[in-house]
């Protein structure tokens, strides 16, 4: 991200601009989603829990994800059982891995990964999350568009065109969309509430299918997918990201002409 502005007038005001997009994933292991449950339980010596494995397999089938990227290989896990056994101390191992990996980040983008240890971060998502997002997303978007200010042709300040018409019906299909794919139910609820055409969330669904939910970095992959798209984007768009709380962050985007 960067900012740009003019030398005269409102020198203190700057506009955020996307100057570049970088995406990378671990090159260690690429696991198809349909065999992920089987591989996970085998590698972690958990085949004695067949009911739990079957539950994970069903979750994988409905996730909308086709493959998963991992930094850790089976050889690494075999050498460090503390990474998946919660009864064993693993802090030193994780720190050593991080210390070894960080200097390599400057050497090649392909070495960059979001996580360097298996099981290092746990996410607990309530089943109500997709519904909560769907119930509140439209108001967050309306507030974002009402507060957004852009330069008009006369050098002054003006709001972007509102996606909300006079009778209150949203014209959300006039925009391009960059939505954090936190899961297929979240995207489905947003699609339903905003009555979006199927292709409007195609970039988010593609990233979810190819990479899964990579936490905060996922939205960058969605922006990159939009940039690579063959069809020209509308001038105006919306970005949606989600965090703990639950928090919805909405941003008005403008595609330069």
Give your account of this protein's structure:
Belongs to the thiolase-like superfamily. Chalcone/stilbene synthases family. The protein is α+β, with helices and mostly antiparallel strands. It has a domain of 126 residues: Thiolase/Chalcone synthase (Peroxisomal Thiolase, Chain A, domain 1, 3-Layer(aba) Sandwich), CATH 3.40.47. It is built from eight helices and nine strands. The chain has a three-stranded mixed sheet. Strands 1-2 form a two-stranded antiparallel sheet. The chain has a two-stranded antiparallel ribbon with strand order 3-4. The protein is elongated, with a radius of gyration of 21 Å. The two termini are 18 Å apart. The N terminus is likely disordered.
- Report mean pLDDT, rounded to a whole number: 76
**Class from secondary-structure proportions:** alpha+beta
- The percentage of residues in β strands lies in 5-15%
Report the radius of gyration as a whole number of Å. 21 Å
Largest sheet: 3 strands, mixed
CATH class of the domain at 129-254: Alpha Beta
Separation, N- and C-terminal Cα atoms: 18 Å
Spatial arrangement of strands, main beta sheet: 7-8-9
Q: Give the total of beta strands.
A: 9
Outline: elongated
CATH topology of the domain at 129-254: Peroxisomal Thiolase, Chain A, domain 1
Q: Uncertain spans, ≥5 residues at pLDDT below 50?
A: 1-11, 106-122, 165-169
Q: Count the DSSP helices.
A: 8
Query: Fraction of residues in helices?
Result: 25-40%
What's the CATH H-level homologous superfamily of the domain at 129-254? Answer: Thiolase/Chalcone synthase
Which oligomeric form is depicted? Answer: single chain
Which CATH architecture of the domain at 129-254? 3-Layer(aba) Sandwich
Order of helices and strands: EEEHHEHHHEEEHHHEE
Organism: Triticum turgidum subsp. durum (Durum wheat)
Keywords: Acyltransferase, Transferase
GO molecular function, one term: acyltransferase activity, transferring groups other than amino-acyl groups
Domain Chalcone/stilbene synthase N-terminal: 13-109
């Amino acid at each position: 991200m960067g900012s740009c502005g003019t030398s005269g007038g409102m020198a203190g005001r700057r506009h955020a601009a996307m100057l570049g997009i970088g995406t990378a994933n671990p090159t260690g292991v690429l696991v198809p989603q349909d065999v992920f449950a089987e591989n996970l339980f085998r590698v972690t010596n958990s085949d004695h829990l067949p009911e739990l494995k079957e539950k994970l397999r069903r979750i994988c089938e409905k996730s909308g994800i086709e493959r998963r990227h991992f930094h850790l290989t089976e050889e690494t896990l075999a050498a460090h059982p503390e990474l998946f056994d919660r009864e064993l101390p693993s802090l030193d191992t994780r720190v050593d891995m991080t210390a070894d990996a960080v200097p390599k980040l400057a050497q090649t983008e392909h070495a960059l990964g979001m996580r360097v240890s298996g099981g290092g971060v746990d996410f607990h998502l309530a089943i109500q999350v997709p519904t909560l997002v769907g119930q509140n997303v439209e108001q967050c978007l309306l507030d974002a568009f009402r507060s957004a200010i852009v330069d008009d042709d006369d050098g002054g300040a003006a709001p972007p065109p509102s996606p909300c018409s006079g009778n209150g019906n949203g014209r959300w299909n006039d925009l391009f969309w960059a939505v954090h794919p936190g899961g297929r139910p979240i995207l489905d609820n947003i699609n339903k509430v905003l009555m979006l055409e199927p292709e409007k969330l195609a970039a988010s669904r593609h990233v979810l299918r190819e990479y899964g939910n990579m936490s905060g970095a996922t939205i960058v992959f969605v922006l990159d997918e939009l940039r690579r798209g063959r069809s020209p984007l509308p001038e105006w768009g919306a970005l949606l990201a989600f965090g703990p709380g639950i928090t919805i962050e909405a941003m008005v985007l403008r595609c330069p002409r």
